[in-house]
């Protein structure tokens, strides 16, 4: 089904690699996720000191959005015209576990801030000044049908013009981010089939 909306950009971060629109940007060999995320941040050349304060889930989503939006002209839309819809399987469990560990001595407010999964949306929205509808959903596994239907409804019926959507999953040293930028004009139809095709590259 063609929804009249299009995938104009995609970013996949998994297996120590970052891809933009199917093109490998770089690979880095790290056994720990923190080292890989820091390496990715440095390699994309971002200058955003707050990055160092984020938990790993927020860093992963923020980095994926940074790559996804590198050619995006947000100025053509109002901030309220752009939404962010994300999902994963583990919610904020990675930060929850780290916060619980800190409670055994002195509870860490810096960790507590990230014990909600939608904080990653907040970090992306603050960085790019997005003010449209946002939501974070938790599923057992990646659900392309839901993403296609939910985001299409937002764009077709809620007068939104663009949406950043997809999957941002991180728990311990396992991670995977697959983000899509959806607009109303483009070449690749925003369909379940095309979403799954891009998501499958995260396993390569």
What features would you highlight for this structure?
204 residues; 8-stranded mixed β-sheet; 25% strand; alpha+beta
Order of secondary-structure elements: EEEHHEHHHEHEEEH
**Number of contiguous helices:** 7
Radius of gyration: 16 Å
N→C terminal distance: 27 Å
| Shape call | globular
Mean pLDDT: 90
- What can be said about the biggest beta sheet? 8 strands, mixed
The CATH fourth-level homologous superfamily: Thiolase/Chalcone synthase
Percent helix range: 25-40%
Q: What would you call the structural class?
A: alpha+beta
Query: How many strand units?
Result: 8
The level 1 CATH classification is Alpha Beta
Work out the strand percent: 25-35%
CATH architecture: 3-Layer(aba) Sandwich
Number of domains: 1
Extract low-pLDDT stretches. Answer: none
For this structure, the CATH topology is: Peroxisomal Thiolase, Chain A, domain 1
Secondary-structure blueprint of this entry?
Elements: E1 6-14, E2 17-20, E3 23-27, H1 33-44, H2 56-68, E4 82-88, H3 93-103, H4 109-112, H5 119-128, E5 134-138, H6 144-157, E6 162-171, E7 174-183, E8 188-189, H7 192-200
Helix pairs in contact: 1-2, 2-5, 6-7
